[in-house]
Amino acid sequence: MSSNELSLRYDLLNSQMNPHFINNAIQSICNAMTKGNVNQSINWLNRLSHLYRLVQKSTKSKLIDLQDEIEISKLYIELQRDLFDKGFSYSILIDEALKEDLEYTKVPPLIFQPLIENAILHGLKDMKRNGKGTLKISIKLEKEMLYVCITDNGNGITKTKKELNESSGISLENINERLKIINGTTSEKKLLDVRTLRCDAGIISGTQSCLRVPLIQI
């Protein structure tokens, strides 16, 4: 495939990153308003508006600042956390070697979001009422790559790959294909890995989704 064909393929994949999660959030906010939670709903709408502006800006570009991708992730996580009955805790750990260069480090837009969405809506869904859910995102530098892992403490992968693709609205293959294109089609590295975590006793302790994104700094 020629470089022009790869570029067109990448643009097509990028255009498919439809932020359907915003529509889902609006529906949840409307439900909250009907229950009389008006002030909180206004707060959610303000944050949702900010999130929407960032998403609109990001999906018009092939690459965005890692700083913006992290901001989108934070806004989305906090909005979903507030929409959970008793919330959940989350943390974002960033490699010290990257902290000063977040605005100069580039990643494909919304490359984290579908995996975060799966972790919250599928991994933590059974913890909506007990507030014991945890979500961890780590962003590390590893041999000229960004190694990004999204980990939850839920019930593991209970859906097939096809079901996860359909329920997220954004195909996991889409993420993998975009990563392959920016890595170079000859790359043999596993760029996207989604697996169930188990403790030493073999009991399921959550799900972990990891991405390997080439380090691009401008």
State the share of residues found in helices, binned by percent. Answer: 40-55%
Outline = globular
Query: What radius of gyration results from the CA coordinates?
Result: 17 Å
Report the portion of residues in β strands: 15-25%
From the 3D structure, determine the CATH topology: Heat Shock Protein 90
Question: How many β strands by DSSP?
Answer: 8
* Gross CATH architecture: 2-Layer Sandwich
- Lateral strand order in the biggest sheet: 2-4-5-7-6
Sheet of most strands: 5 strands, mixed
Low-confidence stretches: none
Pfam family, one: His_kinase
Domain Signal transduction histidine kinase internal region: 9-84
Protein name: Histidine kinase
InterPro entries: Bact_2-comp_sensor_kinase, HATPase_C_sf, Sig_transdc_His_kin_internal
Keywords:
single chain, 218 residues, alpha+beta, Heat Shock Protein 90, five-stranded mixed β-sheet, globular
Summarize the structure.
This protein has seven helices and eight strands, in the order H-H-H-E-H-E-E-H-E-E-H-H-E-E-E. The chain is of the alpha+beta class. InterPro entries: Bact_2-comp_sensor_kinase, HATPase_C_sf, Sig_transdc_His_kin_internal.
